[in-house]
Amino acid sequence: MTISVLSVASEAYPLVKTGGLGDVVGALPAALMPHDVNVVTLVPGYPRVIAAVQGAAALHDWPDLVGAPARLLSGTIGGHKLLVLDAPGYFAREGGPYGDPSGRDWDDNWRRFAAFGRAAADLASGAVKGFRFDVLHAHDWQSGLAPAYLRFAPAGGRCARSVMTIHNIAFQGRFDASIFGSLALPDRAFAVDGVEYYGGVGYLKAGLEAADAITTVSPTYAAEILRPEFGMGLEGLIRARRERVSGIVNGIDPAVWNPAADAALPERYDAGDLALRTINKRALEKAFALEPGDGPLFCVVSRLTWQKGMDVLADTLDALVAGGGRLALLGSGDAWLEHAFQEAAARHPGRIGVRIGYDEALSHLMQGGADAILIPSRFEPCGLTQLYGLAYGCVPVVARTGGLADTVIHANDAALDAGVATGIQFDAVTHESLAQAIALALRLFATPERWSSIQRAGMAADFSWATSGRRYADLYRELLSA
User: Transmembrane ranges (predicted)?
Assistant: First the structure.
């Protein structure tokens, strides 16, 4: 039996992406197709998305969707069905998906994503002619009201089962209780087993409470969020529903991330000709104005935030350079961290290069040219950059948390002797532990046979969507047979 799934998310690569969420949502349709699962993706009609479906006829109209008119458009994404919620009053704005050009959150995000959730629930409960879905799969807080609308205010038709996926529990969509009256939910929904959350309205909380199943993006993170230090206030709810919670590691799309076929690389290569990476290394050095050399070149592709451990990394850069390393960093985030890295680059010209912002093609070159990628996250639900690093022979140096712990095999003596080590892990995100991990990377790099063994083991690992896609398909089937 073919299962029909409505995947509901605020991002989907390549149309809109601010992080791993977009990559995952963009990859899911192809990942699930071999398992007899047909995925239709619903995204908001941001300007770039509307441009991609220009000329599409409206499939459905909402004269008043939580306060503004909207219509449903169709298109394709990666050859798969795409639905777009075209609501100019909510989404036809300059800036990012969630905030204005200065980075400040839109004041009406609560209404924008309530409308998005309401539209998704209408699609998943029979209100839109021509559409019928077996499963609604909601991603992160921006889609969290969709399962709640299905539970408390369905459109009247046959309701789909629902899955709520946590990509990062730190982002919860919490708003004042005063908005509840505008959500068109019954009074009973404003309760501890509904959308109420510490006296206000919680969008992610609502989805976790209402969904038939909860997933997050790695087994270790699924265990971590049961504890207060990782659960961010939702650990009690997660513990209460732990029988419904599972962790499924994200995959990466080999059609996009493959060093043997990557058009962003000056020189393509595979595990059998790692020496060709040197050509990419020279190009990367030039891009970041670094002194050329054969010594270890580390890279960072990250949001510059406390969660990502960037404050600790900034304090460790002098030690990295003193040990003979160099660094290329691409990212943006907190202004004080941006300034700290720029200051480090000024202190160490030719040894540290910094690009503030994001550049997709450059991120591919960094994975294909750097020797190692630093990921000192305090928590990391799954992480994708370490998976890209593994695929490209860019050795991950990671904190032992979440998906980082699940996907990187630490280079201890036993793993090195067995030829299965794929990177370096460290505990406790502190200056001392990160400096020790970097020192280990420098020692291993000085032994080319061991370093290339780590690279090849990482490149041999299978982090495609094959396994993860099957696990999602199995989950959908379990829900439908329950």
Answer: none
